[in-house]
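Bug #77: duplicate submission created two jobs. Keeping one. Sequence:
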Amino acid sequence: MTSNPNQNRASSDHADGRFATLVFERDVAAPLSALWQSWTAPAARAVWAAPDPSVIVEFVEADTRVGGREISLCKAEGQPDVRCECGWLALQEAARSVNYEVVSIGGISQSAALVTADFSGTGDRSRLVVTVQLSSLARDMVAGYREGFEAGLGNLAAAAERTMVLQRVIGAPRDIVWNTWVNPETLPQWWGPDGFSCRTKRIDLRSGGEWVFDMIAADGTVFPNHHRYIEIRPQERLGYTLLWGEDGPKHADAWASFEEQDGATKVTLGMVFSTEAEFQQAKGFGAVELGLQTLGKLDRLVKSR
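Kept job's structure:
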């Protein structure tokens, strides 16, 4: 979260009965790429979506691309489920997103809104301005929107500030890069930094599957790993959790996305670490450089095939 509360504000620029325009601003101590990925990547959105710990957010559908939609259910004990449908209308990477949002309870629409998010930043600082043009339908939703967005953007800022994003353009078509990633024979060949090898115990590369393996350094040091796959969307993205060893504690929620780029493939690998301390520890031992080495090994493998 930001350190200066005076830089985080929500205002109602216009309110007239059932219609209102709400503006929310956040300064975030994270690079623009981390804030953008935290806002758009489904695996990251699942981390910060719940406004408070008493609410469980279940994602029924998530397709973050123009024309795609996201459907989630907010569940709170003793309350009816709240359904939120979000449809993506515009996505300009690290610059702007526009989406519609319809909130309903028991099949009755409560509100409709147009949400515009503008992004800017330099270095390790970024800024988000969200404008919500709200129409309350079944009841006045202004206070609920203001409270929900304030809480959600606070969670978003905290998540972005412990998010690591790695990107590389791989010199091969997307289908080849994807198949090299999700093939149980080739994945262990390139995963890990230079000088590391993988020893697989179990591997099942599908939604609900897992990869239990050891990463072995050049000096023989063994690092137990466990990936649990939450979602695999062929040739587009995969989402998974990282555990410290088999069935160990979770240390990050992660995702990889694949985008065609002039015959090559832009790969984005993102991780929201479970705590700020784990994020700082990872940065301290060079996780960014080591992760880029891993993507470099993927690049070399696909070019050699």
